[in-house]
Amino acid sequence: MSNRNGTALVIGATSDIGRAVARRLADEGYALQLAARDPARLERVAEEIRSQWGCAVTALPCDVLEEDGGGALLDALDPMPDVAVCVVGLLGDQRSSERDAAEAERVMRTNFVGPALLLGALAERFAERGSGVLVGVSSVAGDRGRAANYVYGSAKAGLTVFLSGLRNRLAGSGIHVMTVKPGFVRTRMTAGMRLPAGLTATPDEVAGAVARALRARRDVVYVRRIWRPIMLAVRAVPERLFKRMKV
Asked: Which of 94, 105, 114, 225 is deepest in the core (most CB within 10 A)?
């Protein structure tokens, strides 16, 4: 299959969502650059896509928690991609994060600091060229702080606001910035959790939403549309009442 849509970079390509996004973009006709921190697993994903779609796939090591913040990845990109999708994330454990500052920092850096710095650096490269699409996978958990997951949620809130600011800064420059909010997704990260069927997407659903939103140049995407009114209602609850809900 030819790379009729150009080249797409998927950061976090060995996660369930990342792998699904990579497969969908291959099906859409992109050549792929896949990045993740486990080289062996990454190469397996790359080879699977090469064999099934026959497209060009490059596997590149990247750990957003490393000191260079993914700088080595930027230098290794050839060509500079037309689309970059960052699906890096870590749910973590709220109770552990409350008790262990190092664990809380790991959750915050994985979900906000690392992805934001890398996407910001990619934005600068795209700005020099004058074109490109940046996609950050955030979460509905960042729409309002909840007692059950506020460390994770606060990090995703930071990423959401960062992407919003970047989108507004680059408006009219030829660069588009998209925020994707999946809600619950059935993955290895959520294995063992009791998730509501009507609100829970699959990795393939997330990938499909990303592909459609790329074509439509959407700004903010709730993978299951029901999440938009739900989170609107959640944000509207007065704080004095929200505290009593203990959600």
From this structure: 114
Please return the burial class of 42, using the count of CB atoms within 10 Å of its CB with bins 0-12, 13-18 and 19+.
buried
Percent share of the chain, pLDDT over 70: 99
Q: Which residues of the chain have pLDDT under 70?
A: 1-3
pLDDT at residue 97, as a whole number: 97
Distances (CA, A) of 184 to 126, 128, 191: 31, 36, 11
Query: Catalytic residues, which ones?
Result: 152
Token duo for residue 117? 């710095």
- What's the length of the chain? 247
Residues 6+ apart with CB under 8 A from 207: 17, 20, 21, 23, 24, 25
Please report, as a single letter, which amino acid is at residue 237.
Answer: V
- The CATH code of the domain at 7-245 is 3.40.50.720
For 50, 72, 83, 91, 191, the CA distances from 210, given in Å and listed in that order, are 21, 26, 11, 21, 23
Q: Distance between CA 4 and CA 94 in Å, rounded?
A: 44
Look at residue 56 in the predicted model and tell me its pLDDT.
Answer: 96
Contacts of 237 (CB under 8 A, 6+ apart): 245
Long-range residue pairs from 94-102, CB within 8 A, at least 24 positions apart, any chain:
94/148, 94/149, 94/150, 94/151, 94/152, 97/151, 97/152, 98/151
**Residue 193 confidence (pLDDT):** 78
* pLDDT, tens only, 70-106: 788 999 999 999 999 999 999 999 999 999 999 999 9
